[in-house]
Amino acid sequence: MKRRWLPEWVSEYRSRHGKLYYRFRRKGFAPYTFKAAPGTEAFRQEYASCVDGTAAPPIEVGADRAAPGSFDDLIARYYRSPDFLDPSERTRVVYRGVIERWRNHEPTSGRRYGDAIVRDLQARHVEKMMADMLPHRTAANMLRKRLKALMQFAIRQGMAKVNPVDATRPFKVESEGFHTWSEEEIAAYEAKHALGTVARLTFDLLLFTGQRGGDVRLMGPGQVRNKRITLKQEKTGVTVSLPVLPPLAASILATPSGAMVFIVNSLGRPFTRKGFGNRFRAWCDEAGLSECSAHGLRKAAARRFAEAGCSNQQIKSWTGHTTDSEVARYTAAADQKMLSDEAGDMLMANLRERLAIQINNPLEKGV
Fold first, then answer.
1. Whose CA is closest to 20, among 30, 10, 29?
2. Would you list the domain boundaries of the chain?
3. What kind and span of H or E run contains 241?
4. What pLDDT score was predicted for residue 367?
5. pLDDT computed for residue 61 by the predictor
6. Are 84 and 75 in contact (CB under 8 A)?
7. Which of 114, 137, 208, 252 has its C-alpha lying 20 to 30 A from 268's C-alpha?
8. Element (H, E) at 284
9. Are 202 and 214 a contacting pair, CB within 8 Å?
10. In the chain, which residues have pLDDT < 50?
11. In sequence order, what are the residues at sequence separation of 6 or more whose Cβ sits closer than 8 angstroms to the Cβ of residue 1?
12. Options 1.10.10.10, 1.10.150.130, 3.40.50.200, 2.60.40.1190; CATH of 62-175
């Protein structure tokens, strides 16, 4: 019997009842048992999450020896709670990153925050931690949010009576978010990275699907049926089905891809989340586009739809947004000059129509 091909770190085993299972096992990381069978789209997504350390996170040495009542103790409990496990995998990666950097930080006292006792945390401590992070206001605000959630969980666990973070205030941040690519910047990237390169395919997948980098990183041939790409967005769980537009189809056909995903690294494997971001950053820099990013292409796609006259509902069907306010943020960079010209033309056409009615019907003059 021919042995089934399995990706790296994946093995199969049978339970005592004879049922076949597939397991991800990598040294230094927690094991993971797959829910889907090899060869399916669900398996591909599970495997990618294991490789980037989301589904199979690094093993924390000494986590089981945390002092009772300490933040190490609290965080270990938090990671097993619905507060942490219910959000999407991508969100959990962000939360864990903020929490781990904070608890392993050693201030001038030389004592890790993770070793500190939860009930000793006061508002002045939180404000000092945030001030120490300046000028990075957004990062400081993110830490405040995570500490607030941790302390709320601590209250339910009986490890604290009040939430000291409630008495603090976030920093005011004035930012328009990720820069939206202009048409000139799009042309500059296309001129630098020719059709048939991984750099160009990545760019075309981002621009002509309007999806987040985390979803584009995992797109593969298995998601294409009847000239459409169907995917479940990692961040929101929203399912979108999109037509494969001609420029994207040409890029896919021109570029060698992996069996499971379109975009692979030099080793023929899917990019990790961090690796994908770093590589696309390098491709943008090579084209002289220091302000541009992968997420900025998602905003550029929404801008293009707005400039084409698409309704908010049509744009939401493509991007997966659920509210008009979310779409408004993404389409704010629509070509103001073009839209103002169109509005002026519509206004003048309406005035001419009203004038024609008054000329042809004198009774309308007194209305």
1. 10
2. 1-59, 62-175, 183-334, 337-366
3. strand 239-243
4. 45
5. 54
6. no
7. 208
8. helix 273-286
9. no
10. 1-3, 367
11. none
12. 1.10.150.130
- β pairing state of 32-33 and 10-14: unpaired
Q: 17: helix, coil or strand?
A: coil
Q: What is the DSSP string of 142-202?
A: HHHHHHHHHHHHHHHTTS-SS-GGGG--PPP-----SPPPPHHHHHHHHHHS-TTSHHHHH
Residue range 306-364, pLDDT digits in tens: 888 888 888 888 888 888 887 887 777 666 666 677 777 778 787 788 788 777 766 55
Considering the domain delimited by 183-334, tell me its CATH architecture. Answer: Orthogonal Bundle (1.10)
**What is d(CA 146, CA 115) in angstroms, rounded to the nearest whole number?**
17
Report whether 82 contacts 92 (CB < 8 A): no
Q: Evaluate whether 193 touches 199 at the Cβ level (below 8 Å).
A: yes
User: Whole-prediction pTM value?
Assistant: 0.61
Contact (CB, 8 A) for 93 and 102? no
* SS3 label, residue 90: helix
Cβ atoms < 10 Å from Cβ of 66: 18
Give one DSSP letter per residue of 327-366, joined into a string: HHHHSTTS-HHHHHHHHHHHHHHHHHHHHHHHHH-GGGGG
pLDDT at 343: 72
Which amino acid appears at position 187 of this protein?
Answer: A
